[in-house]
Task: inverse folding
């Protein structure tokens, strides 16, 4: 029987690459998306044309409690098991301290912390049955402090913190780890100038930006490492060292 992975925010970019990587391993793929319906459908079609009936899509806005509850229920009903949950979906934008608002808090915390936490809570029993893995995608830049991103940083730091707490709470059946990407892709809908790119790269010891595949490979490694839990793996070309 195929194993099943749920990846949030999987229609595009890093989430999509994780989906394709696990499809190559013959897994069932649940592609969660919020607004990128066409991309999610295209991805499911691509996967199903290679491995028939292995990819399904679910829409849910992680800011909305009832959507998260529905995502949990639909995930449970879709395939026989749930073996890996990757909390990848994220909203990312600056909130300088003079511009913070309740709305920004709800959006940034909803997708980066509250949604993932309640998703874990709803799926933990199924994950226990399969001795599964939870992987939370955080951000390597947190360790140094990032000006103008206080809400996003708080949400991602919260996600790293619950990674440790839940690693204890859900052991020994489930492993819970985090992967902290560095500079992989330009933010969605943003194109950096050559000068901006050079500046970012100059702070990375490996002298290049990462790629979607670097994170997908890390997910594969972490999920298969059955004697590792509560850890955050930085996949950042050494950026956090400098
Ligand atoms: N890209 C990087 O260089 C980098 C660096 C550090 C950390 N990371 C982390 O790595 C992960 C993947 O990065 P990425 O750049 O591929 O992500 P991304 O493109 O910024 O976001 C991934 C998906 O998250 C979904 N999403 C956003 N808000 C949502 C909400 N309220 N409810 C449900 N889904 C929501 C969106 O789905 P729809 O399109 O369907 O709306 C989006 O496609 C993220 O957790 C990010 O924080 C990335």
Result:
């Amino acid at each position: 029987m195929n194993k099943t992975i749920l990846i949030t925010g999987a229609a595009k970019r890093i989430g999509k690459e994780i989906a394709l990587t696990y499809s190559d391993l013959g897994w069932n793929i649940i592609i969660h998306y919020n607004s990128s319906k066409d991309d999610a459908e295209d991805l499911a079609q691509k996967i199903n044309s290679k491995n028939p009936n292995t990819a399904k899509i679910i829409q849910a806005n992680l800011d909305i409690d009832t959507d998260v509850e529905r995502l949990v229920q639909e995930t449970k009903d879709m395939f026989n098991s749930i073996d890996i949950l990757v909390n990848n979906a994220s909203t990312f934008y600056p909130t300088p301290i003079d511009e913070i608002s309740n709305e920004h808090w709800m959006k940034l915390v909803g997708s980066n912390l509250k949604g993932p936490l309640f998703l874990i809570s709803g799926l933990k029993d199924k994950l226990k049955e399969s001795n599964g893995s939870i992987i939370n995608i955080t951000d390597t830049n947190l360790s140094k402090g990032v000006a103008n991103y206080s809400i996003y940083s708080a949400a991602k730091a919260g996600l790293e913190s619950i990674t440790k707490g839940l690693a204890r709470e859900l052991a020994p059946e489930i492993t819970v780890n985090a992967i902290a990407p560095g500079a992989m892709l330009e933010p969605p809908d943003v194109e950096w100038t050559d000068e901006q790119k050079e500046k970012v790269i100059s702070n990375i010891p490996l002298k290049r930006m990462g790629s979607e595949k670097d994170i997908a490979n890390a997910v594969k490694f972490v999920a298969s490492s059955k004697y590792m839990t509560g850890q955050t793996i930085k996949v950042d070309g050494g950026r956090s060292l400098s």
